[in-house]
């Protein structure tokens, strides 16, 4: 089965990002499944902030997703509109908006909703975590 994941729940106020990662790890461990891509939308875009620092005794879900995606060559898409609305920019958007700093974490990329549509069309199933 070829999956794509849509995550909308906040990484700090819900378990959505954690549950989605558990699902993704189980899916690829099976060997018969693939993950086309991960799309973070609404409050879930907060996961991609390089400035968020969880306590040392807690899981750093941002880095966990980044490592998982790198290991399995899975893109991590962050909705650009939702991210900009919440003050998250990559270097290109910072320059475009004439802002001195950017804070999008490594391994994440800003994309429009067209990327979510593409994931939906290219996958057998899209799983939503909110």
From TrEMBL:
Main localisation: cytoplasm
Signal peptide (residue range): none
Coiled-coil stretches noted in the UniProt entry, renumbered to this chain: none
InterPro entries assigned: DsrEFH-like, Sulphur_relay_DsrE/F-like, Sulphur_relay_TusD/DsrE
GO cellular component: sulfurtransferase complex
Single biological process term from Gene Ontology: tRNA wobble position uridine thiolation
Intracellular or extracellular location(s): Cytoplasm
Keyword terms of this UniProt record: Cytoplasm, Transferase
Molecular function, one GO term: sulfur carrier activity
A Pfam family recorded for this sequence: DsrE
SUPFAM superfamilies the UniProt entry points to: DsrEFH-like
Family: Belongs to the DsrE/TusD family.
Protein name in UniProt: tRNA 2-thiouridine synthesizing protein D
